[in-house]
Each structure stands twice: as structure tokens, then as C-alpha cells.
Design a protein that fits this description.
homodimer, alpha+beta, 5-stranded antiparallel sheet, 5-stranded mixed sheet, 40% helix, 18% strand, elongated
Chain lengths: 626, 626
């Protein structure tokens, strides 16, 4: 570690998180740096006098992650000129300014197998073969918008700066040196203009191109520029979008096929990461979705690539298996478990008649618990699993709680699946607690698609629909269930019941009212005599609420108050206008003296109810642990 | 759908799952097939007389998934000759037979930008530029092992057959036609031999090469061959390994940079899937880890690629976003939540003294709940998160239950992290219920790394270690805790306790004994008077057991028996030699008549205990739902 972690990023809006030095990746990077720093192979570029003076011992390695964290080793803040590393970025700017079609008419995308300074043009059109050789790069640079050469260059400088996340400047000495010795590039430009391919003032165009090559960067800049491409065009340090996402893959493709001069094929074989090198010794390598790599060391090999940079990139690729075409591990099956509602029901408190109906017809509701990321291949497998489990099914619950992301590549198949289910009159219910981007696009008009917050609500929704379809509509919220027929009081005599009723108070709640919430004192037992309440609580991190159960008229809640007091551990909300008969703890304590047998019966009933809930909770944990 | 799903795969050991036709992917494939079937662009190859007779209207599309499922549309079982599609596969065979170094000395890997029949060789060496042009393919074919030309060809035929998953044969007419008109290839071979690059009998070598090009395949075969490369070298239909995993990326790399003749760059730009085409109209495209694509349609474009095949592959790539360099979505943070043990403890029943110690020092135990797949980038972020949360930490629990896979690319950083923690004398405990491949490689000698089956065991292990370190060793399993000081009997008088003791029986269990299991009748309450038992149950799918809690001497289990009878919902196993005092339900029912106040006290205590367990279960669900 050379202490370069805290660099000065002028455009940086988010601080780079500081971690104690020497984590595992720091150590590996230092190890690679030490290992190849000793190499004396290669020679500093000499075709431009100013470059020939570079210190051949300089060597820097920098990595930038997708959350903008930087790892550095060696000379990572030494400035050098960007040279050909500018080519993919300026090609990107030309694409952004002129559109893909025009740029592709003017510059090809075929690997040439030629050296960087080849004069080969496409026979007939005079079109340069690709934007990574000088001819194509000069063409791309000429296609950048700008009223004047100065304006065009300023656009290029600002563009490169946005990738780097700080304002870059020009090494004027290198620029002048380059301009004085740039006759071969002038010749290429004139040949292109002669062929009718290039338009404009050749001297101005070449001058802009030379200035572009003379922009100063550091090895760390290159890693941030690479990370911006890896991050889909958004700079992960400044969080600014620099390049449209749809252009990123085009830029990475030309880097893949033509980025490393006439060693592009060998580079792809051995390193397998889209990259571009420059004659000042820079390499910028892009691992999509994962990492940006910057390297700097002046001595070059015969193909013009930095010797130490190539060795370090190859070592990084091999040590971590970063080759783009490495045989990937196969993901887990997207459906982690499938069950039907006859075997697993919602936690809504139900009558015996309803329970029997659900046991008999519950197989019409199928629940698929999904996992992992949904992309093309996993969506295909998911669609196949859902489609092969449709026998007798009328409601499909897709439990998305363990799905991290729905990738765009999954959408066509998921849309096709939902449309097919809708066509078969099967209802699809998405339990989507994470609010995934993409789920909304799967919703159709009408009732055949539903998006709810959690699995419990999805199950309950499907059960209600099933009971409705069987003419087993659940208790209307307007029906009153007197204390005498409450489940908890089943073992209580008529006289005891009447005595109890005299001790309770009636409380009324409007829809949406909170009866009590977590932390409130547990000071009363509530019998629901009309309406419906939900029991919910926050997840461990407190990020969101999820429903534990619903309690309809005829059942009770808050019974723990009579047992161990303390504070409430969940929240009760009236789902419908609700009436409760409330027995407070203070009145209950008096009752214990006066009527111990009534209290005994109540305790036994509460213990039974707790026991049932505990079994259900254990089942819930079983399902979550599965 | 042309009804080709049930193809005859002679080598196939696993049946292809049959699904009702016309799923979303079937429909999209049919749609693409219909859309481009009407195109009349392109011309059937005519340089070999036998090919010129092909029906230009033929068009087939086939996909094979990573679990060997096939999708087909159109002419997917029509035989045609493989031609140049054989090149990457025979190159793979040469690599397998001769090793990477020798093959690379004999055939380059640089894209040439030349047509397939180019005569260009590397100046000086006479080495062909890459194995996808005819020169390189003839060289690769000549490098295949075999005592004779016939033996070498049979190796090639068997090799291609293993990729296809069925025995392939040769179209003798095409072979003879090809041999009669193959002078340009003979010329190339003689030039290579002249340069000292090719060794052997040119006529034999060319003849083997012509036979290789004349092997008959179907479009479906090509999709299975592609899927075998996509699947890391294992045929997903026959499940046989054909190619070593480390050679797969080399083959895909040359397909990427040189696969589509002189349109390789444009193909990568527009389609972005490694592929190879042949002049008979076949295309074989490989989407690593996801899909194999086969296409067949004879009319070719100017570069020699199947017109309909290119259009269909481009459409598939665009519709599903399959471009290899598409900006990938960014994965979720690998650490879904982090908490310390002062806020969340194991479910082991603890004394007040122990609970206070854990509340005071529990922050020394940190739990990271991980999620997703661990690969290079997520392992980097995980290491950073763990390292920035080490303040005062002595035990790190990595909860792997939501981790689907530890990729090889994650290993160097995970190993580095564990080594660093071990060096800092921090213990790492892996809770690994899925038994992930890779976890074992993270274990070190000694007690500084631990692998346990679930989070509960991990937490308990860390807590025990913490209490030990604080000289708060938990109760030795040999200490006897009489009934009089049992938690459940705290409110029972000395006389009542003595009466109860007289009604219980003593039962002894050896370590590992099962006290009862799920489904057993709940017929007794057990007071643990010596030893330790664990409570466990099966996950919903029944795939594995997980621990719910442990119960030490001084506590009771099985109390639901007195409340609601029925069957046991969990299993109790003696973790240490254990002694219990057992109160059966039948004796308890007698006691209810004789001593109602004793029973009342017992019920209240049970209700309190149930209530505490229910709160804990709710907390557990909260954490699992988070």
C-alpha cells in the first residue's frame, strides 16, 4: 500500500469509505505489484521524444469497485498521458453525439490483426477497420460535436474528466512533441480524406487528436474510468451517469475484439477482460458489473502493451478467475420449494367449516418460493416449473421474498408466463416484500394478477378468493359475535360468561385505527365481537412491517397480557370497523380472588391458544428455514 | 412448434422433461422463426456442387438449456453438414490431445479480419493466424492424436458425437464433392508445410479435414453442442464431461474474436454471443452458463454466414438482452444484515446470571447474514464489511443459509479474510446449513474456525465460548438440579413440590438418545434434572433438521402435553447423559382433582413459558423475514 487511498477527486460527491489498510485484496494487490515490479523486460516508447524520458521503474496498480471503493498499490497517483486509452472513451463520445448508425458508417468494428499505426483502410470505402487503430480513432475524434476545434477538444477533455471523476488537464510538452512527430497520423488522415471518408481540416483534426492523447491521467483515474464502464456508464465514485447504458456494450465489444493492438486475441485468451492500452504505459481493463482496473508502467512489449501491466492483469485474472468466458458456476434452481395450500395455510384465524374447505380444495392454490436472481435462464426454468404444476390450480402465488433482482433478460418470459396464466384464467399473486423493479410490469388489468406485500397476505388473499368461489364467503365484518360464543370462553359456563361480560368494556375502532403497537403496556385482553384486525410487526432490522395473522370476530388477541404482562410485541390494526370487549389486567386480578375457577378456565384456554400459535410459529420458521 | 421435442438421443441417459407445448419461450421462438422464415436474402453456398442443391427455404432454430431441456422451431431435425462449425470443437480436441502450449505454437489466436479461405500466414513462422480460418482449422485437425488418418478421423467423429449426445455420421457425397473441389485448401496446406509449420501427409490431412466438414448434424445437435460448451464442458443432456473446464474458455475466446468469418466484429457488436457458422447454413452460439443455440438455414450472406441464422440470433440477443457485454444489473449487497449478540441471543435456556453476562459482553459476538452468490465482487464487499465491523469483536458468525453458491472467484478473498481474522485471534464461525462447496477450504486448524449446521448452533457456540472466556462456564452437565429449584415450579410451595416429586418417574438417557420425536403422543412433561437436551425439527420440505433450542438441567420441556395433548411437533435428543423427572398426563389428570391449586400454579407457569417462547419465535420469524 502506498497510501494513495485518499486521493483528491474534485468531482467526487460521496466520500470513499476508509477501512483499515491491508485487507485481503490490498495484500494480494501488493503481492502482485511486488512480484512484477522487478521485471526489467520491455522498453519505454521512444517514437515521441517526450515519452522516451519516462522512468521505466514506475509501476502502479489500482482497482475501483462498483460502490466506488479504491484499492491501490505503487505509483497510482503519478500523472502520465492517456494516449490510446482515450480511444474507446472518445469513440463512446462519438456514438453519443452522432448515433450508432452514422458512426458505424464511418468507422468499422472488425478486428484487423494490424499494428496500432496501420494504414490499412477498408477497400472501396476508405473506412478505417475499427476505432482502436489510429485511423479509426482519428475518425472518431473528428466526429465529436463542437463548433470549433477548441470546443471539440474541450468536450473531449470534459468527457474524459467525467469518466475519471476529476478535472483532467493536458501535458502540453507531450502534446507539442506529439504534434511535431505526428506525420504518420497526418498521412493516415489525408489518406482517409482522399478516400472521401474523413471530412474537415486534417491539421485541426490531427491536432485535436494529439491533444486528446496528451491528456494527463493517473493509474487510479484509469481504474475509475474502467469502473464507470463496468458500472453500466455511471461513475461509481461521483454517481453521475456519463454514458448511456445501451452504448456501454458497444464500447466494451470493440475493446474486447480490438483493444490490445495486434495482441488482442492473445490478451482475450490469457486475460479475458475487455481492455485498452496506451503507449505511455497505461492499461484500463473493465470487468462488467464487478471491477475497474487501472495499471501504469512505461516499459512496453513488442505489440506496444505495458509489460508489467499485462503480467499484472493476467495474474489478477488467473488468481480470481475473472476471465469473461470462464465456465460460470451454474445457479441454483429458481424455485426453492413448491407447496399447495392444502398442506400449508395462512395464519388467519378460521372457522372449522372454512378449515375443512381449505383442506379439501387448497390444492387449487399453489405457492412457489423463488430464490436468487431472475435472469433469462432462471426465468425459463421458473416458467417451465410453474407450467408443469398447473393441474387443478386456480391461484399461483409467486413468493419473491428471496429474489434479489428481476433482470431485464427475465422480463419477456415472465410476461409470457403471466399472459398464459391469465389466458387460462389462473390468477397470479406476487408476494413482493422487496418491491422489486419489474413486478409492476407483470400486472395486468382486472383481478387475474395481484401484487401484495408478503406471503401471508398472498395466501390469505388466495384463500379468501377460494372460499368465495366455493360460496363459503367468510364472516361478513358487520356480523356481531357475542362474548358467549367466543372461542376462548368455550369452557366457561353461561353464568361465568355473564359475570365476565359485566367486567369488560366495549371499545370501537374505525378502519385503519391502531388498537395498540409494539412497546405499549400489555394491560388488557381483547375479544373481537365485530370486524377484523390484523397483527403485524417490524422485521428484525425494522425496515418494513409484515403481517403475522388476522383475527376475525369470535376470536381474541392480546392474551399474553393476562399471563406475563410486560410490553406488546406486535401491532394491532383494525382492518374493518371493529368492536372489542376488553378485559383489563387490573380487573382480571380482582377476578382471580373472587372467581378462581373462571380464571383457571381462562388460563387453560389461553395456554391452549398459545400452544396452537407456537406450533404455527414453529411451522412458519420451518418454512423460512427450509 | 414442429414437434421435435422428443428427439432420439442415442447417448442420452436422462429423459428430457416433457412439458405441455407452447410455453412463453416456445411462442417467442416460433414468432422469431415465422418472422425471418420469409426472408429471401442470401444465396446457398455453391463452391461445393453438393451444397448448391440445398433447399433455400429450410430454417430451423433450437435451444438447449443447462438442465438439458430443448426448445425447437422449424427444420430442427433435418441433417446437413457441419462444415466450419466443426472448427472450434476440433480445435478443442487438439488442445485436449496436445496441450495448450504446443497448439498455440502451431496456431495463433489473433483475429485476422480475413475471409475464411484466406491464405495469409504469420510472416516468418508460416503459422496460421487463428483456428477459425481454414488454414488454422487444417492445422488443428492435423494435431489430433491418432495412429492413422482413419483413427484420427474416428477420434474427431466420436468427439463431435459426444458434444451432440448422439452418434454422428458422414455425408459421403458432400465429402467426395468437397475432396474433388478442395484445391484451395490443399494449396493452403502445402504453403504451411512449405513454411515448416505443418508436418505430415498433406493429402491425408486434407482428406481428414474434408471428412470432418462433411459430418452430418441437425440444428438440434448444434444447440446441444453449444449447450455443452455453455455448461462448462459437460453435455447437459447426457451429463458426460466432454471437454475439461479450463479449456472451455479458450475455445469460447477464439469463437468470440474470430468465429464469424470477417463479420466477427459486427457479430459481437450486434449479437454479442460467442458463435461459429458453417457454409451449409449452420450456426452454433454459446451463452455461457445459460443456453446453447443452434440454427440452420442454407442461404448465406456475403461473409458466408446464414442470413436467417444471423437475424434470428440477433433478435434472440436483443429480445432477451443476451449480449455478453451487456451492462449487468448490480447485485444486492452480500451482507443483508449485521447484528451483535447483545441484541439477539440464542434460544438456549439461560440463567439470569448468564443472560446478564451476554447482555453486557454480547457485542463481542457479531453475526453477518449473507445473501446471494459469493463471487469476486461480492466477496470483496463482504470482506470490507466484516473488516470494518471488528471493533471489540472476538467471534464472527457468517450466516450462509441464504448463500446459494461460493464461486471459485470468491475463494482468494475469503481465504484472506479468514486468515486475517485468525491472525487477529478472532474466531470465525460458519453457519452453513446448505453444506456449500468451498466452506471446508475456509477452515483452519485449531479452534479459530468452526463450521456448524445452523445459525442457532453458531450463536450458541459463540455464547458458550464467551461465557467460558468470562469464567462463567455454564452448568456442568454432571450437576444435578433437583425438582425443588426448577424454573417451572418457582411458584409452587415446598409441600406441593414434594407431592409432585412423588408422582414423577426418573428416566435416564445416554448421549444421543432420542427422548421423543415428531408425531409421538404428547403424554408427559419432562423436568431436566441433569444433563442437556436439544430440541430440533425438520424444515418444511423435510430436507434437513435444524435446532430450535437446547434445554439444560433446571428447565422443562414437553409442557404442551399438559395443555393440548395431541402429537409432538419436535424431536428431543440428549446432547449429554441426561436425567429427567417425568410427569405423565394421566397422573396429572388425577392430580387436577386432588390439588387444583398446584395445577393452577403449574398452568400459569406453563402459559408464561409458552408466552416467552412465542415471543422468541416471533423474533426468530422477524429475523428470517427481514
Amino acid at each position: 500500500m502506498s497510501g494513495d487511498v485518499e486521493s483528491t477527486r474534485l468531482l467526487g460527491s460521496a466520500p470513499i469509505p476508509i477501512v483499515a489498510p491491508d485487507g485481503p485484496l490490498d495484500r494480494i494487490l501488493d503481492d502482485i505489484h511486488a512480484r512484477f515490479g522487478a521485471t526489467t523486460d520491455g522498453a519505454v516508447a521512444s517514437y515521441i521524444p517526450e515519452l522516451a524520458g519516462a522512468d521505466p521503474s514506475l509501476f502502479g496498480l489500482a482497482l475501483t469497485t462498483m460502490d466506488g471503493h479504491g484499492y491501490t498499490s505503487g505509483a497510482t497517483s503519478t500523472a502520465f498521458t492517456i494516449q490510446s486509452v482515450s480511444k474507446p472513451f472518445v469513440y463512446a463520445l462519438a456514438l453519443a453525439d452522432r448515433g450508432v448508425d452514422e458512426v458505424t458508417r464511418r468507422v468499422g468494428v472488425e478486428p484487423s490483426g494490424d499494428a496500432f499505426n496501420a494504414i490499412t483502410l477498408e477497400p472501396g470505402t476508405g473506412r478505417p477497420l475499427n476505432p482502436m487503430i489510429n485511423a479509426g480513432a482519428i475518425m472518431a475524434s473528428s466526429l465529436v460535436d463542437g463548433a470549433s476545434a477548441a470546443a471539440r477538444f474541450e468536450r473531449i477533455r470534459a468527457w474524459l474528466s467525467a469518466f475519471a471523476g476529476r478535472e483532467l488537464d493536458v501535458d502540453e510538452k507531450v502534446f507539442h512533441s506529439e504534434r511535431l512527430t505526428g506525420d504518420r497520423n497526418r498521412a493516415i488522415a489525408y489518406l482517409m480524406r482522399n478516400a472521401g471518408a474523413l471530412t474537415g481540416d486534417v491539421d485541426e483534426i490531427c491536432s485535436t487528436y494529439f491533444r486528446q492523447c496528451a491528456v494527463n491521467v493517473t493509474c487510479e483515474d484509469l481504474s475509475v474510468m474502467a469502473a464507470t464502464l463496468a458500472h453500466g456508464g455511471v461513475n461509481p465514485v461521483t454517481h453521475r451517469r456519463v454514458l448511456a447504458e445501451e452504448l456501454v456494450s458497444r464500447v466494451l465489444t470493440v475493446m474486447t475484439t480490438c483493444g490490445m493492438y495486434d495482441n488482442a486475441g492473445m490478451w482475450m485468451l490469457r486475460v479475458g477482460i475487455p481492455a485498452k492500452s496506451g503507449v505511455a504505459g497505461g492499461i484500463c481493463a473493465v470487468l462488467p458489473g464487478q471491477l475497474g482496473i487501472g495499471s501504469f508502467s512505461p516499459p512496453l512489449d513488442a505489440a506496444g502493451n505495458s509489460v508489467r501491466g499485462v503480467l499484472a492483469c493476467k495474474e489478477l485474472s488467473e488468481r480470481f478467475g475473472l476471465h469473461l468466458l470462464r465456465a460460470p458456476g451454474l445457479p441454483a434452481h429458481p424455485v426453492r420449494s413448491t407447496y399447495r395450500s392444502d398442506a400449508f395455510s395462512s395464519k388467519r384465524v378460521r372457522s372449522l367449516r372454512e378449515r375443512l374447505a381449505l383442506a379439501e380444495h387448497g390444492a387449487e392454490i399453489i405457492i412457489h418460493e423463488l430464490q436468487g436472481e431472475l435472469e433469462f435462464a432462471s426465468a425459463e426454468r421458473l416458467a417451465r416449473t410453474v407450467r408443469s404444476n398447473l393441474d387443478g390450480v386456480r391461484w399461483v402465488v409467486l413468493d419473491l421474498r428471496r429474489v434479489g433482482r428481476i433482470d431485464e433478460t427475465a422480463m419477456p418470459l415472465l410476461i409470457g408466463l403471466v399472459d398464459e396464466l391469465t389466458g387460462r384464467r389462473v390468477t397470479t399473486i406476487f408476494a413482493d416484500p422487496n418491491g422489486l423493479a419489474g413486478t409492476n410490469r407483470l400486472l395486468r388489468d382486472g383481478w387475474n394478477t395481484q401484487r401484495v406485500r408478503d406471503t401471508e397476505t398472498a395466501l390469505e388473499w388466495a384463500e379468501e378468493a377460494l372460499l368465495n368461489a366455493r360460496d363459503m364467503q367468510t364472516l361478513s365484518p358487520s356480523v356481531r359475535v357475542p362474548l358467549g360464543v367466543q372461542e376462548l370462553l368455550a369452557e366457561v359456563s353461561r353464568e361465568q360468561g355473564a359475570r365476565l361480560r359485566a367486567l369488560t368494556q366495549t371499545r370501537l375502532y374505525a378502519k385503519g385505527d391502531i388498537v395498540f403497537k409494539e412497546g405499549d403496556p400489555a394491560d388488557a385482553l381483547y375479544f373481537v365481537t365485530r370486524g377484523l384486525v390484523s397483527v403485524d410487526t417490524r422485521t428484525a432490522g425494522g425496515r418494513r412491517r409484515f403481517r403475522l395473522s388476522t383475527v376475525p370476530a369470535g376470536s381474541a388477541f392480546g392474551e399474553l397480557a393476562l399471563v406475563d404482562g410486560g410490553a406488546r410485541s406486535s401491532r394491532i390494526v383494525a382492518v374493518e370497523p371493529t368492536e372489542c370487549q376488553v378485559l383489563t389486567v387490573s380487573i382480571f386480578e380482582k377476578l382471580r380472588q373472587q372467581d378462581p375457577s373462571l380464571c383457571d378456565a381462562l388460563f387453560r384456554a389461553i395456554a391452549r391458544s398459545l400452544s396452537a400459535r407456537l406450533r404455527q410459529a414453529t411451522q412458519e420458521i420451518q418454512s423460512l428455514e427450509a
